[in-house]
Amino acid sequence: MTVEKLIEKAKVLIEALPYIRAFSGKTVVIKYGGKAMTEEALKNAFAQDVVLMKYIGLNPVVVHGGGPQINLMMKRLGLEPKFVKGVRVTDSQTMEVVEMVLGGMINKEIVALINQHGGRAVGLTGKDGRLIRAKKVSGGDGRSEGDEPIDMGLVGEVEKVDPQVIRDLEQDRFIPVIAPIGADSEGRTYNINADWVAGAVASSLKAEKLLLLTDVKGILDEQGKLLPTISKKDAARLIKQDIIKEGMLPKVKAALSAVEGGVTKAHIIDGRVAHALLLEIFTDKGIGTEITA
User: Fold this and answer.
1) Which distant-in-sequence residues (6+ apart) come within 8 Å of 77 by Cβ?
2) What is the pLDDT of residues 146-171, one digit of tens each?
3) Phi, psi values for residue 119, rounded to 5°
């Protein structure tokens, strides 16, 4: 390697220095999903990013999805997935599959991957340590076909997050990995959108950042161009104009809710880019869309 290339590497480290200093000791909540969860190279890059963040003083908290894996398992079991406006209708059979796939298979795979790369990850669901108290999503949430509201079954929303178990794990240098499942006061289990959970967890921790990984570059404008930064007001306008819609809608709503709830900044970034987390946090330019109050 030439001296010039070594100097370039040093410049990268120097560029990261002010961000390392600014974010040391701060909590960063990451919603992990999309292709970053399914492609081997991206999975390893994600785990490396999370471990590096922990080693240089940040406190990463991972909340993961797993929709495609749930669909695959349901089909293997002869069950047909049903969605209304992008949200899974969750009867009791579906809930059993959701808990098995999210709380078991996927959660433990992510934990093992992070540990393999030198981290100390611990897997949780929202039921552990009373982390997430959930309640059933009502028909008034807007999920309907025609004029008739649809009973979404065991689909929940976050009623309350008790972050104590996360704080305890952070203090002991562990990396929490959370599956988006919660329970109500009577012990009923609910399937919750992972974006909503990530936003609520970030708010409860007053995190420095919420980072939502997706399979697009970020939020796009009317012409399909990337918006590097967007305000709450502009986001509301794009939602009203049906430009922000479908899978992007819960991400943007979760990001806005997090910023309103005390999170410093929220970012929607392209998880198809290797080391997207490091590029967003530790470089001057960053990638994706930054959402501000």
Assistant:
1) 97
2) 556 678 899 999 999 999 999 999 99
3) -90, 180
Amino acid letter, 95: M
Domain boundaries, the chain: 24-196+274-283
- Are 62 and 178 in contact, with CB atoms under 8 Å apart? yes
Token pair of 52, please? 């590096």
Q: Using alpha carbons only, what angle is made at residue 110 by residues 267 and 35, rounded to the nearest 5 degrees? A: 55
Average pLDDT, the chain: 91
Q: Using one digit for the tens of pLDDT, what is the confidence trace for 246-263?
A: 778 889 999 999 999 999
Sign of torsion, CA 104 159 215 60? Answer: negative
Q: How far apart are CA 97 and CA 95, in angstroms?
A: 5
Tokens describing residue 147:
């004029």
CATH class of the region 24-196+274-283: alpha beta
pLDDT at 224: 83
Amino acid at 178: I
Q: How far is the C-alpha of 193 from the C-alpha of 190, rounded, in Å?
A: 10
Alpha-carbon dihedral of residues 11, 16, 17, 21, nearest 10 degrees? 180
Please state the pTM of the whole predicted model. Answer: 0.92
End-to-end C-alpha distance for the chain, whole angstroms: 45
Q: Would you say residue 286 has pLDDT above 90?
A: no
